[in-house]
Design a protein that fits this description.
The protein has 327 residues and is α+β, with helices and mostly antiparallel strands. Helix content is 24%, strand content 35%. The chain is built from four helices and 19 strands. The strands form four sheets. Strands 2, 5, 6, 7, 10, 11, 12, 13, 16 and 17 form a ten-stranded mixed sheet that branches. The protein has a four-stranded antiparallel sheet with strand order 15-14-18-19, with no helix packed on it.
Length: 327
Amino acid sequence: MEGSIRLLACLVCVLRMGSFVRSKRNTTGNLLNTEVHSAPTQRWSMQVPTEVSAAAGEAAVLPCTFTHPHRHYDGPLTAIWRAGEPYAGPQVFRCAAARDSELCQTALSLHGRFRLLGNPRHNDLSLRVERLALADEGRYFCRVEFAGDIHDRYESRHGIRLRVTAAPRIVNISVLPGPARAFRALCTAEGEPPPALAWSGPALGNHSTAVRGPQDPGHQVTAELPALVHDGRYTCTASNSLGRAEASVYLFRVHGASGASALTLLLGALGLKALLLLGVLAACTSRRRLEHPVTQDSPPRPQAQESNYENLSHMSPQSPLAATCSP
């Protein structure tokens, strides 16, 4: 009897464990089916490359795509691109699309050089920048805004670094007075990568003193010749991996005379030339008077006037001319 009771108890335990396992398996199967038949929940995200590089004068494309938590959105939206920093940087492009419209109407395009390539309705905010300049280099941030809920907007945090490359270009070369009646030469060039500068001139060879001055923008460098000893031609050469450029200045000084003496000589030469010019003008005027003497003009002959009835009535009847005039 006791053995029968133990066997019955074991059977009850087995049945309960089987029921528990079956219930757990059924629950797991239902969860798996739910995951398969329902789309995974999306979050706000943006996909952008780390860096885009292009040459100055050409065009660059800044790719930007995004995802959002809405299964389908056809309401009003705005696409924005900023430069410099996220959230607070100046806008360089902005467009807006009305409800159910795939046309994003441009509201802002800095200097008319920014154009939307992507379609915001298809989660694409890619931007094209025309006629690149060195000043365009920096970071750019894309942003999308859905109308309504204040949380329905998102902006890339790290952005895209736009790198603009350019061959060297000399923007300024000059000779300036220095201390103790000396002269110095300056040469400023720009390019990306920043160019290396070298001076060449009389008894100089190649003298490289390229430095980035405190007032130079990020792509400019300046090279100085502190003292020009010899007269002649001084040439500044700028070069980087994309090319080279050069420009020259000439220095000619008056030797053997002080500054005051040189100024006196210059003024004296100018005064002599002015006196000679006045003498030539006076001689030309006298010659013209001799060749064309002034003669007394004879009094002008009276011209015949048209007659009318009023004039005839005032003329003398003895005048034969008046008798033959007709109105």
